[in-house]
UniProtKB/TrEMBL annotation:
Biased composition, class Basic and acidic residues, residue ranges: 31-44
Record region (Disordered): 26-92
Source organism: Galleria mellonella
Gene Ontology process terms (BP): cilium assembly; cilium movement involved in cell motility
Keyword field: Cell projection, Cilium, Coiled coil, Cytoplasm, Flagellum
Top-level taxon in the UniProt lineage: Eukaryota
Predominant localisation class: cytoplasm
Record protein name field: Tektin
């Protein structure tokens, strides 16, 4: 079965003819023609012969009395032969015509003439002619009216088919647009999910960097610029994640709306296609088609039949609702693209600031570590110098012991081995006492310098330990910030990857 896709402008039904055949209009109505014929027949009969005397039935009808009962029998009059005429009343009263030896008279001559006149009456033939004329005229008018009605209904069906086809095209366009929008929104939804998955990487990188920096020595656990930027990065990642989650919820809701609109428009498109095919089939039918049948009850409206205004409103509203859902979805896709791009740009900029802060921290730490190492080298040199000084002081003190022994031995010899008069307080003896005193003072001074040197040496050793600890701390900080955090942050996604591309 072929589907009508275009409508011929030429009408297939023949044009109504006004001069021949079934389409010729009669000058008189059948009633007027029948009345004229009866008048003509009555006039002709009145001129041809006189009217017969009224019958007994007509006389009864003229008196207004009922034609039954024996009281009316005396009104019977004998005929020309002296006998009573046979009338229809005779059948009722039991009266019979007179009988003679030659014949039996059942009817009178007037009745016989009346009977012949009734038999020869052309009224039935005239009526048959009238009926024949009326029937043919009615058939011609009926076929003309039916053909005209079919032509008008065919035009109405064509117009309805055009309207259905127009709305079918609109619905198909809307269906195609909403289908493409559903596909586009699904692509954007997958892109958003991809961006949410990619967002786990900068979050884990920031968290890993913060965890690594928490492993620094206590002296380096400071809230420096890198620490602040990492915390800002974590907060920004959380903010972007919340925005993406909210946007994903909106997309899920819009996807449900789009699918519902798509289902409705597809249902309407299917209905329009079926209705258009139905109208096409109706237009292809004619009185000679093999598929036409009697359909009892086809004139009744269906259970779900709606007025034409509602159909127009339903078609328009369905297309408008579908277009509104598509436009809202397109706006959401546009805002989604802006959200992803802006979020990715913000994260990338914050990552650059964090990298710069880490690089600055690494540079400061590296410079400080070099200064500490230089100070450690100086401290070690001073420790070595102090060791030499302490050794020299001890050696000097030891040398002072020999001088002290010499002076004290000389004094002891002078005190113990000089005789009575020779033991005097002369200059040599006083000089030896002064020498012992000077030696004692010198040794005391040297011992004080030795103690000071040893104390300074201890301080230098403590400082050495502190410097070595600080250097180890700075080296560990450098290892964390420069090597480990740098290696981890080298895997930070780009702005395009954060945008879901």
């Amino acid at each position: 079965m072929t589907t009508l896709t275009s409508f011929p402008e030429n009408d297939k039904c023949p044009k109504v003819c006004t001069d021949i055949g079934a389409f010729k209009k009669a000058s008189k109505t059948p009633e007027q023609a029948e009345k004229e014929i009866k008048n003509a027949e009555e006039t002709k009969a009145a001129v041809a012969e006189p009217s017969p005397p009224p019958t007994f039935q007509e006389s009864l009808e003229g008196t207004g009395l009922p034609p039954t009962g024996e009281e009316y029998l005396p009104n019977l009059k004998p005929g020309t032969d002296g006998k009573v005429d046979w009338t229809p009343l005779g059948d009722m009263t039991g009266t019979r015509p007179g009988v003679n030896k030659y014949s039996i008279s059942r009817y009178s001559l007037n009745e016989w003439r009346k009977h012949n006149q009734n038999v020869l009456d052309p009224e039935v033939i005239t009526e048959s002619n009238i009926i024949d004329y009326n029937a043919k005229t009615s058939m011609m008018q009926a076929f003309g009216n039916i053909d005209k009605q079919q032509s008008e209904n065919t035009k109405r069906l064509k117009q309805k088919a055009r309207d259905i086809f127009r709305w079918k095209v609109e619905v198909e366009k809307a269906c195609k647009a909403i289908t493409e929008e559903v596909e586009y929104l699904e692509i954007e939804r997958q892109r958003l999910k991809g961006a949410s998955r990619v967002l786990m990487l900068p979050e884990s990188i920031s968290k890993e960097c913060l965890d690594l920096r928490s492993n620094r020595f206590q002296s380096d656990l400071v809230a420096d610029l890198a620490e602040q930027e990492l915390i800002k990065e974590m907060n920004l990642v959380s903010e972007v994640r919340a925005t993406l989650k909210n946007t994903l919820n909106q997309i899920e809701e819009q996807m449900a709306i789009n699918k519902a609109a798509k289902h409705r428009i597809e249902y309407d498109c299917c209905d329009k296609a079926m209705a258009y095919n139905t109208e096409s089939i109706n237009l292809s039918l004619n009185t000679k088609s093999n598929t036409i049948l009697f359909k009892p009850g086809s004139t009744r409206f269906g259970d779900y039949t709606a007025p034409l205004e509602y159909w127009e409103y339903f078609c328009r509203e369905n297309v408008q609702n579908c277009e509104a859902a598509r436009q809202k979805s397109a706006d959401l896709r546009g805002s989604l693209n802006a959200i992803l791009v802006n979020g990715g740009r913000k994260l990338r900029n914050q990552a650059d600031r964090t990298d710069m802060a880490l690089a600055e921290t690494v540079a400061i730490t590296q410079e400080l570590c070099m200064k500490l190492e230089e100070t450690l080298r100086n401290t070690l040199q001073r420790i070595a110098d102090m060791e030499v000084l302490i050794d020299n002081l001890k050696d000097s003190i030891r040398k002072m012991d020999s001088a002290m022994k010499l002076a004290q031995t000389r004094l002891d010899n002078r005190n113990n081995w000089r005789p009575h008069g020779e033991s005097v307080r002369d200059q040599p003896h006083l000089g030896l006492i002064e020498e012992v005193k000077k030696i004692h003072e010198t040794v005391t001074s040297l011992l004080g310098q030795l103690r000071n040197a040893e104390r300074v040496r201890e301080d230098l050793l403590k400082k050495r330990i502190v410097l070595e600890k600080d250097i180890a701390s700075k080296r560990k900080t450098l290892n964390i910030d420069r090597d480990r955090c740098g290696m981890i942050r080298s895997h930070y996604p780009s702005a395009s990857e954060l945008a879901g591309y």
